[in-house]
Amino acid sequence: MKTFSLTSPKAGDLIEGxxxxxKGSSLFVDLGPYGTGIIYGKEFNxxxxxxxxxxxxxxxxxxxxxxxxENGYIELSLREAGNEIIWREAEELQRKxxxxxxxxIDANKGGLILDWKGIQGFLPASQLRLKHYPRVxxxxxEKILDELKKLVGTSLMVTIITxxxxxxxxIFSEKGxxxxxxxxxxxxxxxxxxxxxxxxxVVDFGVFVKIEEGLEGLVHISELDWSLVENPADLYRTGDKxxxxxxxxxxxxxxxxxxxxxxxxxxxxxxxxxxxxxxxGVVIKFNKYGALVSIEEGVAGLVHISExxxxKKMKEKMELGKSYVFQIILFEPENHRLILNFLDEKTPTTxxxxx
Length: 355
Known about the structure:
about 350 residues, CATH 2.40.50.140, disordered C terminus, single chain, about 40% strand, 5-stranded mixed β-barrel
């Protein structure tokens, strides 16, 4: 004769059972070989509406709160079971990368609020499809919010990318839903292709361009020009036509370069300069490492802050837009790397186009 071991349910387990009866503010559930379960007290009140709709023999799924209370019953929770089932479903949708449509119910400066089965989840702006991304010149947060609010009341095809039931966190992405349809379009393009495109948006980190219907790419600010670009809006406006080169196709995204089709100033600089040369340069930017100095259009090097001891002392000796004398102490044109030593401590002269 075979014997079977039965593992008793423990707190946190989901368990199925049939309704026996309701007595006052208690609901009794037949859990088969495990015994009798009970939903009462605050758990009864929390699920009152659901319980009133139940009748004997109805099958329910509940969550074990206490494996055996003082009266020998297994204490159950219907509401917690419902939450557990929903979060397990969310985890399964995330695992399968399932696409589905959800309504946008609100927006904030960081993204959109979506509703899924009564849970409010978040769709960061960074996870929006390109056509929905708020393209605001200068990155003004209030203007970004205004653009995001235009999506409230619409439905978006999304996937779940993060679930955390303990913190009630549900994060969505709109990008996953477009992967399938983009793959076929992207497959027609490869690194090195030269594209006639149109600027569709200007943001603080670059410009978006339309490659063809249904496909856009990004030209990062570092790929706009060989010269330092502080604000892409100084160079491009929405609607501008441009010729760009594809420099990367990765994760169903296309990155392009505009400067790649312009003469590389470092190539000509290689023939003109060498380590040890004394040259004039214009201070074009200060950063935490020191000062960025342009020695000609598109060729700039760093004067390290350690030469001055502090940022304050550096700015006492050099001003933005002014020309000074420097010595080249490292020159690697193939790596676009130039290190300079500050020599001129005299009153600077105003920079001219000829250096």
